[in-house]
Amino acid sequence: MKPHILSFESFDDWDSVALNELFTVHQFPASGEVADLPDEVKEKIRAFAFKGHSRLDADIMDAFPNLELVANYGVGYDTIDVAHASSRSIKVTNTPDVLTNDVADLAVGMLLSLNRGISGASDWVTSGQWASAGAYPLQRTLSGASVGIAGLGRIGRAIGNRLAAFETDIHYYARSKKDTPDWTFHDNLISLAQQSDILIVAVSGGPDTQKIISSGVIAALGSDGLLINIARGSTMDEDALINALQTRQIRGAALDVFNNEPDIDSRFMQLDNVLLQPHHSSGTIETRKRMGALQRQNLIALFNNTPLVTPVN
Ligand code: 8YV
């Protein structure tokens, strides 16, 4: 008898096949209404294979009396009410480490592209402007620039390690000073932004970091500054950011994450000083396979009664 689990959103084929081999998989209703699942199914479900960025709150969890584990496909679990899960002794797991390198790579790729206008320069060639209008406008040097990293967890650190190779001066904001002697610690974001030519947001999402990139932080970055976000849209005051981009209060922004994805604020699409990505910093075949495998290892551990691999509560 295979254990029963509930799967959210659609998984890549390799994950669906593997999940179906191991478990009896029920799909969360496309209607989004948990009431659309029969009671006998709800009673059988012992774990969720969770994916995506919609809210997973008490109302959904409490419809499953025998729920023991929410195994998240992703390192961030800001949309999961972990406190409620804990209050019902439901465990939550995530997929850290396996995606760190890809997320850091995309952050650096976005930074390089934005700072050197790579995307606009490509359009310059394909639109024929190189021949008709001449050389592309000059861009900016990265080496020697001050890069500020907000959040020095695994991903922030991996970004810093990469940027050190570009001979940048690295500053960071974190709850406490880290063991990174060559990097300068700031205990607040305004000071970090003031010191940074480029500010990269790598904090976890959730109530503690809601809109921490405020109008004040954006103003402190200054008119020459670039902002990169690979964390969560919720960390930004998006109105303040859009206003700063429209009025050139900052030079530009490269964003992989937004509020209300994928129906993001349409004003972003009108800007000529942004590089926009569809939340795909972990979006490589290799990493997504590793994320799926780690999610399944946690599910298997639950049903085998062995310690969870990557618990968060
Ligand atoms: C998503 C992410 O999980 O790991 C995270 O926190 O944001 C991403 O890797 C991925 O887009 C699948 O939803």
Topology:
Elements: E1 4-7, H1 13-22, E2 24-27, H2 39-44, E3 45-50, H3 58-61, E4 69-72, H4 82-87, E5 91-93, H5 100-116, H6 118-126, H7 129-133, E6 146-150, H8 154-164, E7 169-173, E8 184-186, H9 189-195, E9 198-201, H10 215-221, E10 226-229, H11 238-246, E11 252-255, E12 274-276, H12 285-304
Parallel strand pairs: 1-2, 1-3, 3-4, 4-5, 6-7, 6-9, 7-8, 9-10, 10-11, 11-12
The protein binds 2-keto-D-gluconic acid.
Structure in words:
The protein is an alpha/beta fold and 313 residues long. The chain has two domains: 4-96 and 285-304, 3-Layer(aba) Sandwich (Rossmann fold); 100-276, Rossmann fold, CATH 3.40.50. It is built from twelve helices and twelve strands. The protein has helices at 13-22, 39-44, 58-61, 82-87, 100-116, 118-126, 129-133, 154-164, 189-195, 215-221, 238-246, 285-304, and strands at residues 4-7, 24-27, 45-50, 69-72, 91-93, 146-150, 169-173, 184-186, 198-201, 226-229, 252-255, 274-276. It has a seven-stranded parallel β-sheet. It has a five-stranded parallel β-sheet with strand order 2-1-3-4-5. Helix 9 (189-195) packs parallel to helix 10. The model has no long low-confidence stretch (mean pLDDT 97). Bound molecules: 2-keto-D-gluconic acid (8YV). 2-keto-D-gluconic acid (8YV) binds next to loops.
